Amino acid sequence: MTSSATPSRKALSKIASNRLQKEVVEWQVNPPAGFKHKVTDNIQRWIIDVVGAAGTLYANETYQLQVDFAEHYPMEAPQVIFIPPAPLHPHIYSNGHICLDILYDSWSPAMTVSSICVSILSMLSSSTTKQRPIDNDRYIKNCKNGKSPKETRWWFHDDKI
Amino acid sequence: MDSEDDMHDAHDVESLDDDFYSGDTPMGSEDGDAEYDFVDNESEDSEDVTSHRQQQSYTILSVSDIRQRQEEDIHRVSTVLSISRVAACVLLRHYKWSVSRVHDEWFADEENVRKVVGLLEKPVEMPNARELPCGICFESYSSNEMTAAACGHPFCSACWRGYVGTAISDGPGCLMLRCPDPSCGVAVGEDMIRMLASDEDKQKYSRYLLRSYIEDNRKTKWCPAPGCEFAVEFVMGSSSYDVTCNCSYSFCWNCTEEAHRPVDCATVAKWILKNCAESENMNWILANSKPCPKCKRPIEKNQGCMHITCTPPCKFEFCWLCLGAWSEHGERTGGFYACNRYEAAKQEGAYDESERRREMAKNSLERYTHYYERWATNQSSRQKALADLHSMQNEKLEKLSDRQSQPESQLKFIIEAWLQIVECRRVLKWTYAYGYYLLENEYAKRQFFEYLQGEAEAGLERLHQCAEKELQVYLEAEAPTKDFNYFRTKLAGLTSVTRNYFENLVRALETGLRDVGPSGNQANANKNTSPKSLLGGKGGKSGKAKVIGTSSRSGDEAWTMATIGLASTAPTRTRGRQTCARCANSTGRFGLCCLLLCD
Ligand SMILES: [Zn+2]
Ligand SMILES: [Zn+2]
Ligand SMILES: [Zn+2]
Ligand SMILES: [Zn+2]
Ligand SMILES: [Zn+2]
Ligand SMILES: [Zn+2]
Questions:
Q1: What is the pLDDT of residues B96-131, one digit of tens each?
Q2: Which residues are catalytic (chain A) (predicted)?
Q3: Are residues B158 and A19, on separate chains, in Cβ contact within 8 Å?
Q4: Do B166 and A110 touch (CB under 8 A)?
């Protein structure tokens, strides 16, 4: 667990915790295919197991996502990272940070944890090579001191993967 | 050149001030090719010279001008495309406020444009049900508590308010707000913002909208002066990037640094970067205190001009920049003594490699220091001159008018002198950045450049000194001073001479010192002189020569002597055409000597 990589967070607002309660219920009734989440006391941080889809480069591999919710969720996007070892993928850095627009600029409060999971799985499934982003080393160096991926100015250059 | 040099020497021995008309700017030379064209038309005056340079290649816009233009553009698009005001605003914002671009795109493919910017042709009603789930908080509400954009995707008002508020506090991206539904993309326009945002957020939004009109438009920029709210619309393809805002700040429209004509933007950027890198080393240079080169007591510089006089009993007069004796300044004998010129330390004898390298490093720092100090000192001199200009305009002119019984309208020449000083300090400052990057091995260019710069600098020092120190006497006088007219002529003359030197310099740098030749550099430079520029003063002030000729002053003797000497070969005036005894022609061309003789 990389607790150091998590910025200290304010407690959830009333609106945020109401909405998260609803998401938990919805998840239990109708979890996204390939994802498992064990509900704990800590509603502000979800640890989710991801299993690579059959017929893709990540078939039968299991990874863990860590989702942290901010005080003003869902107006603010949650922070989503893979807990290392992160899948080898051109948009996933070795520290688990994910270059995916909906986690940052393109977040909308009408999105949910479940819709994020679907996007991440589709990102994994469409990959044709297992490799790190070309700027991985530089990025990791810049991220020392436990910087959040939300502090990065992302440049989303590849729409296909 | 020889004959000119001889003349300078003769004058320079007498005094410094006489440089003013002996000038290194050549007088009418023997072959009759006087270097300064003079225009007969007396209505050509200094304003023309400045305005022909600006030629309104830009318009200054106030906040209300901007709002009005923006409103007009929105109105035009909304009328031509028959769409709502809000939709027109969304479209214009998307196409960077170019009305013609909006029209082109819309009429080429309206359907696609609508899709791209998120404008529906027909609004969609919200689902018809008594209760609807909000797409954000997932609570259910009765449909009259729900709000939707044109797409009909329902969200409760609390969620809408949160959505809009978050977007506005995130920055100008709120101008392109879309429906929260990830699959939707319909634009959320100003009408929704008015309905949903707090008063404070509405104000923020309208500020972003105003800013966008300036910042997203290729043809407009904000004035970079701190606290200034004017914007500038620039006419693309104009020859000069220099822009002067209504707040009086001058800047380069291209790079938004302070105006730096005649130096180009790339050189300025390099220079500023260099200064950042060296800033720690250079801090001491900005300190306004140096030891007197003679008595070693610390001297504080509190004036704009570089001519410093140590306090009694020393009273040594020296140049602030090079710490050389002021009496040597401008001297042309025995080679070229100039404060503007950097000479690397002489390297004599054999050096071993490491010593040579050390020497080179030392020289390169010294070289930079030389240029930086002159750059920075002209900058602070300019600030001082600007302050002096303001105090002149706001209080001293009135006092002077009182003391000298002169209507303020007759004192305009003083303001013109200060304006010229402020502008020349700016130009001179930037020529030091230029000089730093001028290649050492372009010897002829460098020599030509240093010649022009030296001339301009010497002229400016005389002008600055006259406006700063000599004026003081008349300000403090108890009663009107008889020779005030003498002062008027001198200051106005120095103003136009200095303007002329600087126009030469600017023009030469802007043409990349192309006129440099093996000999006759100066003559070439002077041929470039604008015909309008020399006298530049108001026409029709006859009797200048008389006043000077008859005024006898105890101070400034050399100046008076020389003047009388010139005046004794009296000029003859012919109607419409000027004839000067000294420059010996009636072709309408003037040498500097004529400045005081002829009118
Ligand atoms: Zn809601
Ligand atoms: Zn919608
Ligand atoms: Zn301004
Ligand atoms: Zn520039
Ligand atoms: Zn002294
Ligand atoms: Zn000097």
A1: 999 999 999 999 999 999 999 999 999 999 888 889
A2: 99
A3: no
A4: no
Average pLDDT, chain B: 76
Sheet holding B231-234, edge to edge: B58-61, B231-234, B220-222
Domain boundaries, chain A: 14-151
Ion ligand 3 nearby residues (CB, 5 A): B 223, 225, 228, 230, 245, 247, 249
Judged on CB neighbours under 10 Å (0-12, 13-18, 19+), B565 is exposed
Q: Which amino acid is located at A17 in the chain?
A: S
Q: What distance in angstroms lies between residue B213's CA and the mean position of ligand 4's atoms?
A: 22
Partner residues linked to B146 by β-bridges: B156
Please say if the pLDDT value at position A49 is more than 60: yes
User: Which residues of A are known to be catalytic?
Assistant: 99
Taking a C-beta distance cutoff of 8 angstroms, is the pair A12, A20 a contact?
Answer: yes
Ligand 1: centre distance to CA B78 (Å): 33
Task: Tell which wins on pLDDT, B239 or B505.
Answer: B505
Contact flag A109-B139 (C-beta cutoff 8 Å)? no
List all residues 6 or more positions away from B230 whose beta carbon is below 8 Å from its beta carbon: B60, B61, B62, B222, B223, B245, B246, B247
Q: Of A110, A17, A27, whose CA–CA distance to B135 is shortest?
A: A110
Point out which residues pair with B319 in neighbouring strands. Answer: B307
Smallest Cα distance from B184 to chain A, Å: 11
Q: Does the predicted TM-score (pTM) go above 0.80?
A: no
Kindly report the length of chain A.
161
- Give A-chain residues touching B166 at CB under 8 angstroms: 72, 75-76
DSSP string, B203-257: HHHHHHHHHHHHHSSTTEEE--STT---EEEE-TT-S--EEE-TTS-EEETTT-S
> Least CB-CB distance to B162: which of A23, A75, A102?
A75
Q: Which ligand has its closest atom nearest to the C-alpha of B293?
A: 5
Q: What tokens were used for B547? A: 């006043």
CATH number of A14-151: 3.10.110.10
Catalytic residues of B: 305
Set out the domains of chain B in order of their start, with CATH numbers: 62-215 (3.30.40.10), 292-350 (no CATH), 379-568 (no CATH)
